[in-house]
Design a protein that fits this description.
The protein has 582 residues and is α+β, with helices and mostly antiparallel strands. Helix content is 30%, strand content 19%. It has 2 domains: 356 residues, Alpha/alpha barrel (Glycosyltransferase), CATH 1.50.10; 217 residues, Distorted Sandwich (Beta-galactosidase, Chain A, domain 5). The longest helix has 22 residues. The radius of gyration is 24 Å and the shape is globular. The two termini are 21 Å apart.
Amino acid sequence: MLMKVTKGEVYSLLKEWCDYMLDRTVKGIEDPNLKGAMLCPACGFVHGRFADAVLAYTLLYIETGEEKYLKAADEAVDWSENNVITPEGTWYNDINAIWYGTGLFSAMALGETLHNFKGKIPEALYNKWFNIFVRMAKGSVKFMHYEWFKPVINYYCGAAAFFAFCYNFLGDEIYKNEAIYWEGLCVNKFDENGLLYGECHPHEIVTEKGCHGIDLGYNLEESIQLLLQYAMYIGDEEKLKFYCDKALAHLEFIMPDGAIDDSFGTRHNKWTYWGSRTSDGVEEAFPRVAKYDRRFAKAAALNFDLLKRCTVDGALYAGLMQHGANQPACIHHAFAHTKALALMYLYMDEKDFENLEDVTLPREEEYGVKSFQNGYLKLISVGDMRATVSAVDIIVESDKRCNMGGNLNLLWHKKYGAICAATMHEFYMVEPTNFQQLRNAEKTYCMTPRIICGEYSSDTDKTVEISSSGDKNKVEITIIGNKELNFKIDYIFESNKVKIAITSEKDAIYMLPIVADNKSEIKALTENEYLFNNILKVRANNDVKPTTDLNKRFFNQVGGFEYLPLEITLTANKPTEIFIEI
C-alpha cells in the first residue's frame, strides 16, 4: 500500500533518468551540430527538445557538485541555439519539424533554472542563459500572435503559464498582459463536468452527440498543470481556487495504480499508460497545491510510483510491458518528464505526502457508473473492477485515430491490472519525430475490443447509442448499433466479473485482445475457455480462438501493453455471451 513519497525518492528517480540520458549524449565531437546532442536509442535520431532537461541537470549539479551535469545542461542549450533556433529567437520542436509551440515549454524550463539557481551557478553562465531566456520570451510574444499559428488548447495554457512566469521573474507588465490574455481564452473552455476541452480544431467544436475535444493525457499532464502555475505566478488566489476545482474534476481519470485513463482521448495516440509521450507530468504542479487538497498529493504519488515501475535501467518506458516486449524506450519520455520531477523535488512538502492511505481518489471509490461527454463516456467502478466505455463521436484528422463505437476501452482489476486497453484503429506516425515505430515486431495491430464484419469495425462507428443503469454493486451498459449489423451489446459489470452479451443481425466476430505480458502463462481449459496467469478466465458460449499461438504476444505502442487477441464467433441473431472473470 502506498504510504508516502519522499524527496529522496524523487531525487533518486530523477538522477537515474539523467544519468541514462548523459550516457546517450554525444561526447568528444566539437561540431556544433552534434556536440552535446542526445541520441534516442529507440528512434535513432536527436529529439530537438532535449534541452528541456536543463532544469534537472542543473539541479543535479547543485546537489552533487559534479561538473558533468552542468556541462550537459550548457551543451544542451548550446545545441538548441545552434540547431533549432527560430527567426524570432525561440526554439523549434525539432530540426526536421519546425513547430513553434513547444518553444514555450523549453523556455519555461530554462526560466525555472534561472529562477531557482541564481547565485548557485557561475555568473557568466547565468548571464548567458538569462539573455537567451529574455530573447525567447520576447520571441514567444511574437509567434503566439501570428495568424497562421493556431494550436490546440494546451499551447494557450502554456502561453498563459509561461508569460505569467515571465512577469513574476522579469517584472515586465507586457508579460502580465499576455498571460491574462491567453488565460482568458482558456478559462471558459470547461464542459459541464469540469473537463477542459480544445485538444482539437477548432477548440469549440461540439459533435452531433454533444461531445467536445477532450484528452485526459494532455489535460492532466500539461494543461491543468500549466493553468495552476499561471494562477500561482500571476498571484491570483481566486483563479488558483478555480483551477484547483477543475483539477479535482480531472482526478476522476486517475486509476488506482496511478495510471492516467486516456483510453478515449483526442490525443489517445500518445497514451503511455502513465500519461502522454511528450507532455510534462502531474508531478509538475500538483505537489504545489497539495496543501489545499491532499488528493493532489495522492494523485502525484501514485503516478510517481507508476513512473518508477515503468523505469528500467534509467529508461522510462511507455508502459509496464514495453521493456519485456524487447522494444527500446524513446528518450523523449524521460527528458520531457524531468522538469516535472525537478519541480516536485524543489516544491513538495513531504508532510503532504505522508499517510496517503487516508486519502481516496474518485476512482478508488466504488460508485457504480459516472457519465461524461454528454453521457457518451461511461466510467464504471464496481468492487475491484474499473472500466471505461466510450461512444464519443469526435474524430481528429483521421478515422485511424478513432476510438468510439461503444467499445470496452479500458478494463482493469485490482488483482490483474489492465485486462483490456484500447489502441488506435490503425497506428501511424501522427507526429513523425514524436512517435516510435516498433523495432522488433512486424506490425502494430489494433487492440481495441470491437465487432468486425467485413470492412466494418465498431471502433470507427460514431453512430452507436449508449445507456447505463445500476449501482455500486452492479452496472449495466447497453450499446445499440444500427450501422450495417443492427447489433446490441450489454456489458454487465460486477466486482470480479464482466458479462458481455452480443446479438447481431449478421455473422461477425468479436475481437477481444487480452492484456498479457510474454511471461504470463495462458492455458486452454476447454475449446472456448482460457485462463490467464492463473488469475483471469475468459470464456464464451460460442467459438473462441486465439489469433496466434498461446506463447506469442503482440505489443502496441499506445498504452505500452502486450496482448493475446481472442476471436469470438458471433452468429447472426443468436445471442453470444462472453465472460471475463477473476
